[in-house]
């Protein structure tokens, strides 16, 4: 029986929401507590830099996860691979929640933290590509952008849950309690969320596009299952892989500068209370969620390229707002700036749910879409908070704004060099 479109949309959404919740709670913990717990004995600036480096490890692991899970996703199917990626992410996140700090086990603590953060990256690396394919390969004709939006809704919803969990803890616990054990609760809660995600995904069937390719045994269609999808990807699809990765750079830069870096800067440098800044982020992420369906609808109507070119141009200009608005110290101006940046993040991110799968044929689609998505993460996000911290220390906030504008320029050039993919058949 063909599963309902509602079930497919929900299954592609719920997995990414859970996995990005797991990923974001670490990013928020980095900005608030990871440095003192796992890197004590150094000044706050050094703690922040060390914590931001552990944050970047997952982005280095994500392309490996994309290639690993992409290989099996293209060989044995989307469903089984998506279940495995969710398990890897959930186990890694839960174990971070019970990992002792430096005071108890010394330097084994940050070493194990890096290992588990690597596991988070592997899991998330395999998640997005499969979820995007699940939506895109089931999508009705002419609505691929809309269905590709559902995996893209996972990040803002996951982030909202992540911010909300830390905000509630800030209301219930004092600072000492939060640093001692309270920050671990969101990590432990991941286990329950993963069970929900597994239940939904285990009830799915394989996508019809993949089944058609799997059953083909001769002719052009018979070439749909290469022995090594990665080799085929690099040999025949290197250009779309590179362009897709570069197109993602602006999404990552907008998001992680606006969240992880801005939270750290606002709390430590501007002296804004943590609960207040988290509340400001909750407001801003609603704009990201609102931009996602609007950009998806526009992508189906006008094409992926026009939407990305307009949103990317606006993102380039938004870099000039960072220094005057974030540096003002005014909660209203900072909230407005965060809302603008996350709205633009949603606008540049939403079309990717359809665009990246459309760049590759069925034989290497899981590997290609996942690899492009996560290679973009290395370029746009892995060191973004660290670089921003260094830019602030040596040049000021205007340089961080320049970083956003440069990331937008890179993505604009990549999108400009692409062909429109809206009308491309996936089967």
Summed up:
By secondary structure, the protein is mainly α.
Could you walk me through the main structural features you see in this protein, from its secondary elements to its overall organization?
- The chain has 427 residues and is mainly alpha-helical.
- It has a single domain (5-417), classed as Growth Hormone, Chain: A.
- 81% of the residues lie in helices and 0% in strands.
- The protein contains 19 helices and no strands.
- It has helices spanning 5-38, 44-75, 78-98, 102-105, 108-138, 144-172, 175-180, 185-202, 208-215, 229-236, 238-268, 274-302, 304-318, 322-326, 331-349, 352-358, 365-380, 384-394, 397-417.
- α1 packs antiparallel against α2 and α1 (5-38) runs parallel beside α3.
- It is globular and about 60 Å long.
- Residues 217-224 have low confidence and may be disordered.
Top keywords for this entry?
427 residues; mainly alpha; Growth Hormone, Chain: A; 19 helices; globular
**SSE run:** HHHHHHHHHHHHHHHHHHH
In percent terms, what proportion of residues is strand? Answer: under 5%
Reported by name, the CATH topology is Growth Hormone, Chain: A
As residue ranges, the low-confidence spans are 217-224
Inertia-based shape = globular
Task: Report the helical percentage.
Answer: over 70%
Mean pLDDT: 86
Give the distance, in angstroms, between the N- and C-terminal Cα atoms: 20 Å
């Amino acid at each position: 029986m063909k599963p309902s479109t509602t079930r497919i949309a929900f299954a592609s959404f719920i997995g990414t929401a859970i996995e990005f919740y797991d990923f974001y709670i670490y990013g928020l913990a980095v900005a608030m507590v990871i440095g003192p717990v796992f890197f004590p004995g150094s000044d706050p600036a050094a703690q922040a830099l060390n914590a931001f480096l552990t944050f970047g490890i997952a982005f280095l692991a994500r392309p490996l996860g994309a290639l690993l899970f992409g290989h099996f996703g293209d060989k044995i199917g989307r469903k089984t691979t998506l279940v495995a990626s969710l398990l890897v992410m959930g186990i890694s996140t839960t174990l971070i929640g019970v990992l002792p700090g430096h005071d108890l086990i010394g330097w084994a603590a940050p070493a194990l933290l890096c290992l588990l953060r690597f596991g988070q990256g592997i899991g998330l690396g395999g998640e997005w590509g499969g979820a995007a394919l699940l939506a895109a390969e089931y999508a009705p004709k002419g609505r691929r952008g809309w269905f590709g939006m559902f995996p893209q809704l996972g990040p803002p919803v996951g982030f909202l849950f992540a911010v909300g969990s830390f905000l509630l803890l800030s209301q219930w616990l004092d600072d000492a309690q939060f640093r001692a054990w309270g920050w671990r609760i969101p990590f432990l809660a991941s286990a329950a969320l993963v069970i929900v995600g597994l239940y939904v995904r285990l009830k799915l069937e394989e996508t019809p596009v993949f089944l058609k390719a799997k059953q083909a045994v001769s002719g052009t269609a018979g070439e749909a299952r290469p022995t090594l999808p990665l080799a085929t990807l690099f040999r025949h699809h290197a250009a779309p892989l590179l362009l897709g990765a570069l197109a993602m750079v602006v999404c990552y830069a907008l998001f992680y500068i606006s969240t992880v870096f801005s939270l750290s800067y606002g709390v430590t440098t501007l002296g804004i209370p943590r609960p207040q800044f988290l509340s400001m982020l909750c407001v801003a992420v609603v704009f990201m969620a609102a931009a996602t369906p609007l950009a998806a609808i526009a992508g189906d109507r006008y094409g992926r390229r026009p939407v990305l070119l307009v949103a990317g141009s606006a993102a380039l200009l938004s870099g000039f707002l960072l220094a005057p608005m974030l540096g003002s110290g005014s909660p209203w101006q900072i909230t407005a700036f965060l809302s603008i940046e996350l709205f633009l993040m949603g606008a540049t991110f939403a079309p990717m749910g359809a665009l990246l799968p459309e760049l590759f044929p069925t034989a290497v689609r899981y590997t290609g879409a996942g690899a492009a998505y996560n290679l973009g993460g290395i370029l746009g996000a892995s060191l973004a908070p660290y670089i921003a911290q260094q830019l602030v220390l040596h040049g000021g906030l205007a340089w961080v704004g320049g970083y956003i504008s440069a990331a937008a320029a890179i993505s604009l050039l990549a999108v400009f060099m692409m062909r429109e993919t809206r009308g491309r058949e996936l089967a």
